[in-house]
Write a structure and sequence with these properties.
With 202 residues, the chain is mainly alpha-helical. It folds into 2 domains: 104 residues, Ribosomal Protein S5, domain 2 (2-Layer Sandwich); 82 residues, Rossmann fold, CATH 3.40.50.670. It is built from 8 helices and 4 strands, in the order ααββαααβαβαα. A two-stranded antiparallel sheet has the order 1-2. Strand 1 and strand 2 form a beta hairpin. Helix 3 crosses helix 4. The longest helix is centred in the middle third of the chain and has 30 residues. The two termini are 29 Å apart.
């Protein structure tokens, strides 16, 4: 109930103050809640308690869901109306999060499919030394730094099932970078195309 209420109220407010136009899609809950932290405490009579799943980690009482939704909808809508500066900043933050998510999605598609002209061939040209075998369950891919290391690795490999991919540039630190910036890194794209797999949950 809490997540649904927050998402609905923020979208209604964003449209009311024209931060979202008629042609714009609604903001997703994850975009709105990015950076948020909340604790919801609900007292429920034992006779009404219901939990979902085997681990009983999620409350499933329908009365609680509707009550939480109603309270948060009322109080949050009032807060947004009474604090326009804060509300506008929060909505703009959510819009930026949505734009970043969409940019990352497009970057994933581009990295996966190589839509740019001869992207895949350009990225791998002169870099990947493939294995003779086409069996993905047996093959191994060695990532090495620089052409000199690549030469040594090629000499020492078993060409039947070991491939070598020298990385000439600097691989971005993915732990600290934004997703759309990760997919702009040439060496990350090189690895993606060499493996030939999808990216993340895709």
């Amino acid at each position: 109930g809490a997540k649904a209420a927050v998402t609905r109220v923020f979208n209604e407010y964003a449209r009311k103050v024209n931060l979202l136009r008629e042609k714009d899609k609604n903001l997703e809950g994850n975009d709105i809640r990015e950076g948020f932290a909340a604790i919801v405490s609900v007292r429920i009579p034992e006779a009404l308690l219901q939990f979902e799943g085997q681990t009983k980690g999620k409350l499933g009482t329908s009365e609680a869901r509707s009550s939480v939704d109603a309270v948060i909808s009322e109080k949050l809508a009032y807060f947004l109306e009474e604090n326009p500066d804060i509300s506008t900043a929060l909505v703009k933050k959510a819009i930026k999060a949505a734009q970043a998510r969409e940019a990352a999605r497009k970057a994933r598609e581009e990295a996966r499919s190589g839509k740019k002209k001869n992207r895949k061939e350009t990225v791998l040209s002169g870099k990947l030394t493939p294995a003779q075998s086409r069996n993905p369950q047996r093959n191994e891919l060695y990532l090495v730094e620089g052409d000199s290391a690549g030469g040594s690795a090629k000499q020492g490999r078993d060409r039947r099932f070991q491939a070598v991919l020298p990385l000439r540039g600097k691989v971005i630190n993915t732990e600290k970078a934004k997703l759309q910036d990760i997919f702009k890194n040439e060496e990350i794209n090189t690895i993606i195309h060499a493996i030939g797999a999808g990216v993340g949950s895709d």
